Structure prediction request, 722 residues.
Amino acid sequence: MPVDPMLQSLVAGFSSEAQEVCQKVTMDLLELEREGLDNEALGKVYTRLARHLHTLKGSAASLGLQDLSSIAHKLEDALAPLRKDIKPMPRPMVDMLLHGLDLFLLRAQAHADGRGDALPDPTAALAQLVADAPPPEEAAGNKVEFPSAPAAAPSAAAPVSAPVHAASQASFVQEEDADAGWRVASHQVTALMREVERLREFRMRLEDRLRDISKAVDLLTARELLAPTARARAMLSAVTAGVRSDGHEASDIVDSLEEGLKSITTRPVRTILEPLQRMVRDLSRQLGKASRLSVVGAEVSLDRRLLEKLRGAMVHLLRNAVDHGIEMPDERERAGKHHEGALTLRVEQQGNILFLELSDDGRGVDAAQVRASAERKGLITADEGARMHETQIRDLIFRPGFSTRTDVTDTSGRGVGLDAVRAAVESMQGRIEVVSTKGSGTRFIITIPMELGSSPVLTVRAIDANVGLPMLAVESTQLATQENLRIGRTKTQLDYNGQLVPVSDLGARLGLRASAPPSEGQPLIIVQSGGKRMALAVDSVVGDRDLVIRPLPAEVRDVPSYQGAAILSRGELLLILRPGWVVTDSAPQAVSMPQSRRALVVDDSLTARALHRAMLEAGGFTVHLAASGARALERLQTEEYDVIICDLEMEEMNGTEVIARLRAQPNTRQIPVILVSANDSASARSRGLAAGADGYLSKRECAAGRLLSEVLDVMSRRGAHA
Prediction:
């Protein structure tokens, strides 16, 4: 039925409003389906649900959309008997109401697009909805059953409803991706304009300060020295005080502008996560399972463009969790678990770093099954599988073509799900890792840098190396004393608020020195992450400031110790430690320190060069850098070095070519060379050593603190001057 042209502009707004209301109705239906709610809580949900349906009916009728009003009315009629006898809503009734919502949204979008006159008459669809609804007495009294096999396909409405739900979700995506911009409210623009006015006034004040400074300089250069100098000193003192005040206002303006831009360009993450709860529910029913998704941190606001990129990854992860992780209800009960599987999605933003964690309480990742499947599909050889530790085996699930399924189903078996997730995360310069315990569940942890915002960072020093710690992970700072330390034979602990917290030496963790208990008065940083604490012993605390944390290059992005890097005011690179790595209690490797040596680091990655340089300089080396093999050979014509650390994969001249040139020259033939590569496979290591390298390290091993000890080892083997 056509819409009055005078009202067409209002229909588009109604369609957007209807999507929001239907999402609320969906959440209410999923809540009513759940067991465990008392009658009072159920009554509140039923009341709220009825109010939402009545709103849909009234709004549609006010615009002359009688087909939509009729659908909402039928849904109200189906709900009415259930409100009299308050009980959890049976699944068949939930199915029927969800199908009705899908039909409502599909027709609402068609009206918004001006296609209302082409819609078929809804009478048949409404009749089918009524036919699918259980009798009132059955709906009100039936116990919720969990099928042990995949549910049979619903009758006539089912083939229509699934595409309808997909269409409603597609319209949401289309709305967000129509162009590369954002919807902006008038009050948001007004707030930014006020900050622009403040900036204009600030600029004029700076011009006045500059004129005052120029006058003071003129007085200081005048021939009359005494009186002009006093006047100039007084003028400069006034300018100093004014500039200090201006600095505080500039900081306030920057913060206000940042918040204003965030309000324009971001939206709550719940807008993509709440619809996924419906997807989890429907997929569980299709597979004959029972599972529920809980979201923690749904009100965190993210860049709208980032949200849409994340949505696809979340869909893959959730489908994988329901299909592979969550067991059938009877299997869960035999294992002593609740028949309903629990999926939890946690969202946390630390400055401009986003953390997402999806966990389930399912069967976990079976490392033996993963390894066997990877070997069967030819992704690894049996020898490679035998050398892998459990973490490496779990990472195989992200390989293209990997699947534990031997047959292809509607939900899995093609080997593209988790591969697509890793590709999506890496396209956002993020990283993903998996942690699993067989029989207890699996956790997928995603870390993604964000374009907007800065993070408070605490800068600390170990020997001469400065590194950063996210302030949100810093619980407190203390000084080491004889009273608060418990020093044992193998470990040192801090008495912190009545609890013993392990102490770790940052310099030793980075491989810069041998581990030793903290000295009297040494700073201790209490770091917490994932429910764990660690007292990190540092040489000094430099200070804290807001910094934009950028991701590391791809070749070193998976190192466990660093989550990114920041550029300081003078262009220095500050590496930011990963809190999860800091709280990991791992024994550092003791190293003996060289006295004074010269090292050449050859790598076409700025961050990799900075990583190697920081570790070697803190170990007493004088370090020179070369961004290519050709530049390294030029330096070797005029400089002498005790060791060379060279990247294996470089565009202009790779590491093996550099070694061949070095070994061909008498003056460089005996210099120890360590190859560094992102490839940590046994075959790559063998090829590197066969090319003439004295040592081979993966970039993960370098960042974990192995570089310095390896340098000392190869220098000793080569007979370098001690």
